[in-house]
Amino acid sequence: MRQFTELFLQLDQTNKTKDKTEFLKAYFLEAPDEDKLWALALFTHKRPKRNVKTAQLREWCREVSGVAEWMFEECYHTVGDLAETISLLLPKTQIGSDQSLSAVIQLLLDMKNLSDEEKKAVIIGQWRKLNQEGRFVFNKLITGGFRVGVSQNLITQAIADAYGMEKTEIAHRIMGNWSPIHTTFQRLILSESQEDDLSRPYPFCLAHPLESEIEMLGKPEDWLIEWKWDGIRGQLIQRAGEVYIWSRGEELITDRFPELADAALSLPAGTVLDGEILPFKDGTPLPFGLLQTRIGRKNLTKKILMDAPVVFIMYDLLEWKGKDHRNLPMTQRRKILESLKSTHDLLKVSEPLHAQSWRELALHRENSRERKAEGLMVKNKKSPYEAGRKRGNWWKWKIDPLTVDGVMLYAQKGHGRRADLYTDYTLAVWKQDQLIPFTKAYSGLTDKEIREVDRFVKKHTQERFGPVRTVKPELVFEIAFEGIQESPRHKSGIALRFPRILRWRRDKKPEDANSLEDLQALLQLYGK
User: Fold this and answer.
1) CATH number, domain at 417?
2) Taking residues 29-53, what's their average pLDDT?
3) Who has the most CB within 10 Å: 183, 404, 504, 527?
4) How far is CA 181 from the centre of its chain?
5) From the centroid of its chain, how far is CA 460?
6) How far apart are CA 308 and CA 279, in angstroms?
7) Domain identity same for 394 and 417
8) Are residues 380 and 238 located together in one domain of the fold?
9) Does 379 lie in the same domain as 288?
10) pLDDT (tens digit, 9 = 90+) per residue, 289-301?
11) What is the per-residue pLDDT across 352-377, written as a single tens digit (0 to 9) for each?
12) What distance in Å separates the CA atoms of residue 344 and residue 388, rounded to the nearest whole number?
């Protein structure tokens, strides 16, 4: 546990990728195999299920520390992180535990069938064995809030460097439906005779945003151009008569889309497709929000399936009849993909766009929203299917976001390093002479601008509601977003997709902000 705590703190205290890679590499070379495996699981979102409620952790911390409930809440709102708040409030100790990471996680797993009193005894017992840093990481193991800027790409690079292996090989091995409970580090990473899990997907090939002029890419005929659809990127796998659907976020979502799983049975065994799960009806894409009715439900009723029909738009072929085809040129992979057009009505090949010039393609791009698309994908016809985001072969040529000017109405403190700054803002638009909240925004300002807004919030607070402050409606921000749809859950009746601050409109007064009518007009044009 000491070793993992040191690693966690090292990663949390640096923004340098090279340093993080070296810290991870050292850990994977030196730690016991069981701890390596759990560290890998923790950093790739395969965390143990929480068996203790955060409300219980708060209560037990107050009991041990003697801190009143109101004081605990004030501290929590200031610190912004529950695990850190508890570690700071508990009585100080210099004791350090010699327990391994895997032993501590096993202890947390074994709590599943314990009574609340027994859980309390275990948690407090661990707090008493650990120093402040150890408690902080222990609390993180319970709450699951592992945010230390470690991407899966960084993990694969560190392990590849540590063991002299190919990064793509590591990336493939750590994907799929594995658990530290059912495998070992040796079997998962180092074994040469490793048998592939039938469900294991391949690392996704990702595109870079196109930031230069499109003409810099050369001739249009050297590139495959297709629509960039707004759905759930996924891999559809059919091996040995079993079907698996993985999201790009490495979540197994087969049960969310049973009709796609049935359709995949019509594919030859040993087929892996990269594509987009898209809400679709009568030859037309539907709003992205319909997919959320699928993802958020444990039980899919016939009504949900009817109200949110889907198709799988096939982008690429990664495996064919059990053979890895990723290193073949796209033209060859595409030829096989085209042969699957008539396999099933729910499996549709992404149709390429044909044009004589970039100018003609730019006109297609401008009409993306009318097609319910986000822009165009531009892919080199000679390219292999690469792992991760590599510059040069795949580009996303997105349309400019929709924008609206809103007035900041509420502010709340952030988390982590920004726990003492007001960084989370609620924006409003005008409905006649009243400001109506319509979205929240958390990103887009520079550090300097955030500090300036923070000073404004503290100076112009009008009311306080717990961690939220109502402020003088004076600051105007331009909000960018990718989509808009109706939402009965919001006071404005509207929900935005991926809202963020585009810029601080210092040149505008509050009365210059947009109105709810402006948003409703955008909804009529681009919404449901």
Assistant:
1) 2.40.50.140
2) 90
3) 404
4) 25
5) 34
6) 6
7) no
8) yes
9) yes
10) 888 888 867 678 8
11) 999 889 999 999 999 898 888 999 99
12) 29
